[in-house]
Design brief:
Layout lengths: L2 H4 L9 H10 L3 E4 L5 E6 L2 E4 L2 E4 L5 E4 L6 E3 H11 L1
Antiparallel strand pairs: 1-2, 2-3, 4-5, 5-6
Length: 85
């Protein structure tokens, strides 16, 4: 089961308290959107998305922020994480 599936409630929505507790339970480097929302977590060279993922026609993976609706390329997030590492 993916982390994004664990923190959702039965109607597809998640409460803020449940999400905060879940994020504290997860370990790894958090990836943030420019608005401050957590998009996913890098752990042991793997990425676990907490946001909705899309597959573009060009074959790349996009993440959509649930708070502001901005899209981010997963490739760019990985490069940024590798640079910080």
């Amino acid at each position: 089961m993916r982390p994004a599936e664990i923190c959702r409630t039965e109607n597809g929505r998640q409460t803020l308290e449940d999400r905060q507790a879940f994020l504290e339970w997860l370990r790894g480097r958090r990836v943030y959107c420019s608005c401050g929302e957590v998009l996913g977590i890098f752990r042991r060279r793997r990425f676990y998305p907490l946001a909705e993922t899309w597959h573009a026609n060009s074959g790349e993976v996009l993440l959509r922020c649930p708070a502001c609706g901005a899209t981010h390329r997963l490739r760019d997030l990985v490069k940024e994480w590798e640079r910080r590492r």
